[in-house]
């Protein structure tokens, strides 16, 4: 009978043959310049990297992060209602949501939520 060493050796040889055949048969001989270049969303990778960056993209990212963290902070508030004082929980939740709503109103008032200008 075959031992474990001989079976593992046969499996490794078969896998190496399959990998060798796959690399030979693949059509990676023609390297396309567009496909080989890194892709950045909305930017031409062949132009200068020191062009001015739109501040609008940065501010939209900050708004997204703020509201993403908001969801991560609201979920535990809902879960701890059983373990805390109802009055303290209510006041804390209302203050937290009011701060977020005031921030949303400020962003809306400043025109940050208008997507097309």
Task: Provide a descriptive summary of the structure in words.
This is NADH-ubiquinone oxidoreductase chain 3. Core subunit of the mitochondrial membrane respiratory chain NADH dehydrogenase (Complex I) which catalyzes electron transfer from NADH through the respiratory chain, using ubiquinone as an electron acceptor. Essential for the catalytic activity of complex I. Keywords: Electron transport, Membrane, Mitochondrion, NAD, Respiratory chain, Translocase, Transmembrane, Transmembrane helix, Transport, Ubiquinone. The longest helix has 25 residues. The chain has 4 helices and no strands. The chain has a single domain, classed as NADH:ubiquinone/plastoquinone oxidoreductase, chain 3 (Methane Monooxygenase Hydroxylase, Chain G, domain 1), CATH 1.20.58.1610. By secondary structure, the chain is mostly helical. The protein is 65% helix and 0% strand.
What's this, in brief?
With 117 residues, this protein is mainly alpha-helical. It has helices at 4-25, 33-36, 55-79, 86-110.
Helicity, in percent?
55-70%
Poorly predicted parts: none
Instruction: Please summarize the sheet with the most strands.
Output: none
Q: What's the architecture, going by CATH?
A: Up-down Bundle
Task: Round the mean pLDDT to the nearest integer and report it.
Answer: 79
Number of strands: 0
Number of helical segments with 4 or more residues: 4
Radius of gyration: 28 Å
Structural class: mainly alpha
- The CATH topology corresponds to Methane Monooxygenase Hydroxylase, Chain G, domain 1
Q: Which percent range describes the beta-strand content?
A: under 5%
The total tally of domains equals 1
Query: What form results from the Cα inertia axes?
Result: flat
Distance between the termini: 77 Å
Give me the CATH superfamily: NADH:ubiquinone/plastoquinone oxidoreductase, chain 3
Strand/helix succession: HHHH
CATH class reads Mainly Alpha
């Amino acid at each position: 009978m075959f031992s474990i060493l001989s079976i593992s050796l046969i499996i490794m040889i078969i896998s190496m043959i399959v990998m060798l055949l796959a690399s030979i048969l693949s059509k990676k001989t023609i390297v396309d310049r567009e496909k080989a270049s890194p892709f950045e969303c909305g930017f031409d990778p062949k132009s200068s990297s020191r062009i001015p960056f739109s501040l609008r993209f940065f501010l939209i990212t900050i708004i997204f992060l703020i509201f993403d963290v908001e969801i991560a902070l609201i979920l535990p508030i809902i879960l701890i209602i059983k373990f805390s004082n109802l009055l303290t929980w209510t006041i804390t939740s209302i203050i937290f949501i009011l701060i977020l709503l005031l921030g949303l109103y400020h962003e809306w008032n400043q025109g940050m939520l208008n997507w097309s200008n």
